[in-house]
Specification:
heterotrimer; A alpha+beta (about 450); B mainly alpha (about 650); C mainly alpha (about 110); A: Four Helix Bundle (Hemerythrin (Met), subunit A); B: about 650 residues; mainly alpha; 20 helices; globular; disordered N terminus; disordered C terminus
């Protein structure tokens, strides 16, 4: 019992089943990416910040575009050679296609990784400082003597679990605690379990669903945690993600940033940005900024005398987004030019881990309005960038897996029914071209325009 | 089976030889089956179970609305049961101390009622269940075009159902933000949890991604099957209307669901990675700026959501028309009136349904150009809907109606859907929508469409095709005992909603408006009657719009009782129903009745050849009152060269 | 689709040619994006025209939509129509050309 038209086309529609199927699937993919592109337009039209242009690495994007185009050609050649029964060439081209897919993903992952370690900090006046966190960013909270736990008798969103959410952040040796009844214990899974059940029993007796108890530290504790690892803190308390509260004193929540760029496009008066304050970048960099801005302005006016520099996004970026490429501000007028400064900082390139080529500033928490690494959190541009390219990447991986399957595991069909395999390859190829087609739009929209 | 194989000329018997000899084991036959009939039944049964669950959630809500603050009777008892009590406590009980439904629980119930009914109940039963079982039989093929994909579709749906149910067990409980999940509320509620998986919302979104993928696979399958696997002589215009309506529905699922998938993905990114797709700049919660970049747009979510959710309404209603177009001609012994115009109407309906979505968003501050556009398209789309309903209604004219249970449900559908549709018209206009938006009027409107509308049609479908599945006919008496309380209950629940809605009752009040009793004690003859009738039974029901809450809740309990005979009927008739005398117990004309009962793997014992249209009932001069599609003359199957292959399709 | 040996050989040549054309147009896209047109919107429009041209090549030649069954055309026509609705109607509801622009202009 066979399903008809798996290999040959139905005469009146002129199509075999899989071909109808893949085109329908692609139609729904058009709507999927249509929805995403439409979100892109909607977000861009409504953006209340300067939409990044040429901010991603164009070279990598360009190479990836060529890789995908090449793989689109090879998958077609594989199909054509299978039709001609040149099995060796079919396998070669198929292998090339899969290799291209892998190259694409490797390049993509490099791009992603560079973004994850790069940060942008929005100051309260709208200035953006970009750069790296040489020591990471962690909140230090010390002199903590007391921990308050709240435990729930029922499944709850927040329920004390110090083993997972508190203990990992304690600095130094395994601490000892005193319970309310005066016993000295080491806090771990089993001792907490006992404390928990005792507390819950007491709560039950009182007719409540949640119990709470306190532990006093034998010696003051110090915690160190990333802001995302805790729920919040004040000058005297720190709340962990499981609801546990530590009493103590905030030691340090300053952020040390290796600045590689100052973006003052959203500041009403760029010269008065907090970033130029003495405790941060200082007058030297301010001068460099002004030189650079005036230079850019002059250049723009010479090139396009009739145009309004206010309306040119690229000019705004050149004039008000100062790239910092050396550890000290360039002295003298001529060095205001970015290229000169770059030449001074040797070995700079993409190696962001190299210290000393960027000024280090220590930012006060009160001056920071918002910060994030270059992830979806940073702004809607990066949000849509990661979503679009991530989803596209998933399609690349899926397509590559299917093509690999045709290459490696369809040997039996290749021998017995090559025509059917050719159909499969054609259908897989259609999907692969679609992936290429999406990238043809993604590349200019995200990297270039 | 072998006959079907002859229809394609390529011979590669060696490849498929094992198909004939392999007897699949229990798992392969009933669980991970690739047979479209088994998958259809799997979909239908899980759909029915979810409908029951969604209905149960609604009962709790109705209790809270009618008697806010009073413990739900029986909850304490359920909690004391071993096993079941634990299950109940872990899911709902922990939110209902003392058995009282509070606002939080009410919000969960509301959100999950909507989600379960729409995505896990009606679509799987009405679309996936019926289309899988009936459609391949009706077009005369042996299976769907991609049987394995079909199996995957069901199991993806199953996973989505499990994930959705699991959200009842996690820390925050299931979502509380309505079935629409509007951002920014849905993007930011209770972000302060130990980890994202302790939040029901993460599970909801993940479940939706699975659900949508399942729908996509299913719809690709259905469309391909209809396009490529129709039997000899089954031209497009000889296809039963059932297949046409399901064909259009599949396109709606195929093209409208991806934007919802986008919405779900973006909201997931918002929640899990802290992005601001749907969060505007400067968003504050509890007097504090959220730790977000802002710059996004809540409107974007609504657009993406309603781009699906409006076509989804037609996904809910087209299967109902599909089923009725089979049930009504079979029970009136008359051809379907206006088959062609109904086909074109359903195509128009499908097309227009993509262009009307923002009538759900009149209050979002769209400009006049856009709201005018959406008002126009919304009014336009009522035209094909009316054509469909009129076609079914006129089909009754001059028929000798057999009042079987399926026909009772079908005939009740017509006025009920009529009420639902007509009450929707005023909502199409912005100036009326201003007043009625988010009130019980809207709830009454769409529940009239989907509850006594679609669900009645689904019941009709179950009664109609049950004999084909089991070889036995469902009990007529239990069927009628099912029908009359259901009809009464449905109307008691939903009719008063119009009155309350026009009185300004908001859809999300967990206390049903009791808080506003002092300021809104309007009364009219309906409330007086309600108060009076309940007075006879010694119940003190206030003579104002709040009194209607009690009336509606009583209606809900009548409806609940009315489902007991149905459940009994489904199970008892498997063994105890009247055996069918032939493969075609209702004397129908469409191909599914040409198969043995129940249809074996491969469906047909001969190669069906179609010689005529689908609704040849009471043809003048014919010896019997029906002429099946597969017979050249009564009692004689048409043979292969009877018709030339269909010309290139136009649709 | 091409089925005879000769046709396939022709197709291979065409595929390679189109591959080169696509690569060249990628270079052109990158180059054009660095040209400062009077407004950035123009840059976007030009860039999208080039991208659409490339996409058309891929769709027509690589995905051989230049000779496909009419059924596929119909399905894709509807899909395109709905995708356009996604683009156009979304944007219009954010900035209604009849109301918002004139409204904000008069308030400036």
């Amino acid at each position: 019992m066979d399903i008809p038209y798996t290999v040959t086309a139905r005469p009146d529609t002129g199509l075999y089943n899989a071909k109808v199927g893949i085109w329908l699937f692609l139609a729904s993919e058009v709507m999927l990416f249509g929805g995403l592109f439409s979100s892109y337009i909607f977000l861009r039209v409504g953006a209340d910040y300067h939409w990044p242009v040429h901010e991603l690495d164009v070279r990598l994007g360009f190479v990836n575009t060529l890789v995908l185009i090449f793989s689109s050609v090879t998958v077609l050649l594989a199909w054509a050679n299978l039709k001609l029964r040149n099995i060796g060439k079919f396998k070669l081209y198929m292998l090339l296609t899969v290799l291209c897919a892998m190259t694409f993903m490797v390049i993509k992952s490099f791009e992603y990784r560079a973004k994850f370690s790069h940060y942008a900090v929005k100051l309260t006046d709208g200035t953006f400082l970009t750069g790296h966190l040489p020591h990471g960013y962690e909140i230090k909270f010390g002199e903590a003597t007391q921990l308050s736990f709240t435990v729930q008798s029922e499944t709850a969103a927040i329920d004390a679990d110090p083993d997972g959410y508190v203990l990992p952040f304690i600095q130094g040796d395994t601490p000892k605690f005193k319970t309310e009844s005066g016993n000295e214990i080491i806090l771990d899974k089993s001792t907490f379990k006992d404390l928990r059940s005792a507390s819950l029993e007491a709560a039950k007796a009182a007719g409540k669903n949640s119990g709470s108890f306190k532990l006093v530290a034998a010696s003051p504790l110090t915690f160190q945690a990333k802001p995302s690892q805790i729920l919040g803190y004040t000058a005297t308390t720190m709340t962990f993600r499981d609801g546990t509260v530590a009493q103590g004193k905030l030691l340090d929540d300053k952020m040390t940033l290796e600045v590689d760029g100052v973006d003052t496009r959203s500041v009403p008066d760029a010269e008065k940005s907090i970033a130029w304050g003495t405790q941060y970048l200082g007058d030297g960099w301010k001068k460099a900024f002004i030189t650079n801005r005036d230079h850019a302005k002059k250049e723009f006016e010479e090139k396009y005398p009739t145009r309004d520099p206010q309306k040119s996004a690229t000019h705004q970026k050149e004039a008000f987004y100062l790239k910092i490429k050396s550890s000290t501000p360039p002295s003298g007028e001529e060095h205001g030019d970015g290229h000169k400064a770059e030449a001074k900082a040797e070995g700079h390139g993409d190696d962001h881990s190299a210290h000393g080529h960027h000024p280090e500033v220590v930012l006060d928490k009160k001056d920071i309005a918002f910060y994030s690494n270059y992830t979806p959190k940073l702004n809607t541009y990066y949000a849509i960038y990661f979503t679009l390219t991530g989803l596209h990447g998933l399609h690349v991986v899926a397509g590559a897996l299917v093509l690999t399957y045709f290459l490696l595991f369809d040997g039996k069909m290749l021998r017995n029914d090559p025509e059917r395999l050719a159909n499969r390859v054609e259908v897989g190829g259609l999907f692969w071209h679609f992936v290429d087609l999406v990238w043809i739009f993604l590349f200019p929209l995200l990297y270039l325009l | 089976m072998s006959a079907a194989a002859t229809s394609h000329d390529h011979s590669h018997g060696a490849d498929h030889a094992h198909d004939h000899h392999d007897e699949p084991g229990f798992l392969g036959k009933y669980v991970f089956s690739c047979d479209h009939k088994v998958i259809g039944i799997q979909y239908a049964l899980s759909g029915l179970l979810f409908l029951l669950l969604g209905f149960f959630l609604m009962l709790l809500m109705r209790w809270s609305i009618a008697f806010p603050g009073q413990p739900v009777p029986g909850l304490q008892f359920v909690e004391s049961l071993p096993g079941l009590g634990w299950l109940f406590h872990e899911t709902l009980g922990r939110w209902a101390p003392g058995g009282v439904v509070n606002g939080e629980l009410y919000n969960m119930l509301g959100a999950m009622h909507g989600t379960i009914m729409v995505f896990l109940g009606i679509v799987p039963l009405g679309f996936a269940g019926f289309v899988n079982f009936v459609m391949p039989l009706q077009i005369g093929t042996i299976d769907m075009a991609f049987p394995k994909l079909n199996m995957w579709s069901f199991w993806l749906f199953f996973v989505s159902g499990v994930l959705m149910l699991y959200s009842f067990f996690v820390g925050t409980g299931p979502v509380q933000t309505g079935w629409t999940m509007y951002s920014p509320l849905a993007s930011t509620t209770t972000l302060a949890v130990s980890n994202v998986w302790a939040h029901g919302h993460t599970w909801w979104l993940t479940a939706m991604v699975f659900n949508i993928s399942a729908s996509l696979l299913g719809s690709v399958n259905v469309i391909t099957t209809v396009i490529n696997l129709r039997a000899k002589g089954m031209t497009w215009m000889r296809m039963p209307f059932f297949c046409w309506a399901m064909f259009v529905t599949s396109f709606l699922l195929l093209l409208a669901f991806p934007p919802l998938e986008v919405a779900a993905l973006l909201q997931l990114v918002d929640r899990v990675f802290g992005a601001s797709f749907f969060l505007p700049t400067g968003l504050m919660e509890g007097g504090q700026h959220l730790d977000i970049s802002g710059g996004g747009s809540p409107l974007l979510y609504q657009h993406l959501f309603w781009f699906l959710a409006h076509p989804e309404v037609y996904v809910l209603i087209l299967p109902a028309f599909a089923i009725l177009a089979e049930v009504i001609p079979a029970n009136t012994r008359r051809p379907l009136w206006g088959y062609k115009s109904m086909v074109y109407a359903s195509l128009t309906l499908g097309f227009l349904s993509f262009l009307v979505w923002a009538h759900h968003m009149y209050l979002t501050g769209m400009g006049t150009m856009m709201s005018t556009y959406f008002q126009i398209t919304t009014v336009l789309i009522s035209v094909p809907s009316v054509i469909l309903l009129t076609g079914l209604m006129i089909s009754l004219w001059g028929g000798s109606i057999r009042f079987t249970p399926q026909m009772l449900f079908a005939s009740a559908f017509l006025p009920m859907f009529g009420i639902g549709g007509l009450t929707g018209l005023p909502l199409a206009f912005t100036f009326i929508d201003l007043a009625l938006h988010d009130t019980y009027y809207v709830i009454g409107h769409f529940h009239y469409v989907v509850a006594p509308g679609t669900i009645f049609a689904l019941f009709a479908g179950v009664y109609h095709w049950y004999p084909k599945i089991t070889g036995r006919i469902m009990s007529d008496f239990l069927g009628k005992l099912h029908f009359w309380p259901s009809l009464l209950g449905m109307n008691l629940i939903f009719a008063p909603m119009f009155i309350q809605g026009m009185g300004g009752f908001h859809r999300r009040w967990y206390d049903g408006g009791k808080y506003f009793e002092q300021t809104s004690s309007a009364s009219n003859w309906v409330t007086e009657l309600t108060s009076g009738v309940f007075g006879i039974f010694g119940m003190d029901v206030p003579n104002n719009l709040l009194g209607l809450n009690v009336l509606m809740s009583v209606g809900a309990f009548i409806l609940a009782l009315g489902q007991v005979p149905f459940i009994l009927n489904v199970f008892l008739s498997i063994k105890g129903g009247k055996k069918v005398q032939s493969d075609n117990p209702w004397n129908c004309t469409t191909l599914e009745w040409a198969t043995p009962t129940p249809p074996p793997h491969g469906n047909f014992t001969f190669e069906p050849v179609v010689t005529r249209g689908p609704y040849e009932y009471s043809v003048p001069g014919c010896s019997q009152d029906y002429l099946p599609q597969w017979e050249s003359e009564p009692g004689k199957a048409a043979t292969a060269p009877a018709s030339t292959p269909a010309p290139v399709a136009h649709h | 689709m091409a089925d005879s040996t000769e046709e396939i050989h022709k197709a291979i040549k065409r595929i390679k040619l189109i591959g080169w054309v696509l690569a060249v147009f990628t270079v052109i896209t990158v180059g054009l994006s660095y040209v400062e047109l009077p407004t950035h919107t123009m840059n976007i429009v030009v860039g999208m025209i080039v991208a659409a041209f490339k996409a058309a090549l891929v769709a027509l030649i690589f995905m051989h939509l230049n000779h496909e069954s009419p059924l596929i055309y119909k399905i894709l026509a509807f899909t395109t129509a709905f995708a356009l609705a996604l683009f156009v109607l979304f944007v219009f509801s954010a900035s209604d050309p009849l109301v918002f622009d004139s409204f904000y202009e008069s308030n400036k």
